[in-house]
Amino acid sequence: MPDALQLTRAGLHTTLQDEGRWGLQHLGVPVGGALDLPALHRANALVGNAAGEAALEITLVGGTYRAVGPLQAAVTGAPFALTVDGRAVPMETRFGIADGGVLAFGARRAGARAYLAVRGGFDVPLVLGSRSAWPLLPRRGALADGSRLAVASRMIGAPRSDVAPSPAPSPVLRVLPGPDVEHASHAYAALCAGTYRVASSATRMACPLEGPPVALAMPQRSSSGTVTGAVQVLPSGAPVLLLAERQTTGGYPVVAVVITADLPHVAQRAPGDEVRFAPTTRAEAMRALLAMEPWRWT
User: I need a labelling partner for 233 at 20 to 30 A (CA). Which of 59, 183, 189, 191 fits?
Assistant: First the structure.
């Protein structure tokens, strides 16, 4: 029998995620994948997997996970209290779980999402080029209590110990003007002046924000393609931040787009957390992108 991870208690919303499904948005298939990609990459590097190997994305509340066979694991992202057979283990480092041992997630101290990788990855077939969950695929939604994931052997090298954690999540998200700002420059300024909170209805598709409405009057527009990080404004004036499982087209006005380097901060905002927007430049957005994950290029 192959080694496996038994999800005794899966957690509130635990899914399998890799880097997502690219090249299919013209067919209506969102990219999906891990919302905090640097955290996914760190977890995999710590156990010697390829950076984009599938791992468990654990949202807000973790569970208990029993090893079937000895496993090497790492947990990154939102800081949880972790124990293996009652013994505390640290985040952002590799640790072992003996055959029959139990990894338990306790209190979450901050953030929203943690990533649990095991050496070798999970033996789950590719669907449309990815192992990521997507609710519209059969048996690819949130994992249930009692689920069992066989462990594969796709490690690519020795585990790394020089992986630096990402900066602490920030409530300030840098944005560039969206494609509809030419019709509503005042809306961009109003968005950047407001203070918002993540609504309890936030999902992997979108993050509705509660706060001052953004007044917007512009001509009717047709639907167009969407991007992760786009900030749409609903007819009510409420802003909505689109995430990885967003619909691939949308008709609401887009007044801002969060820069790629700050998308991990979006992933780590929990319901009730504060969000503010700060205007930036394309040059700064590119500098921030090039500065991401420097450990990967050494």
Answer: 59
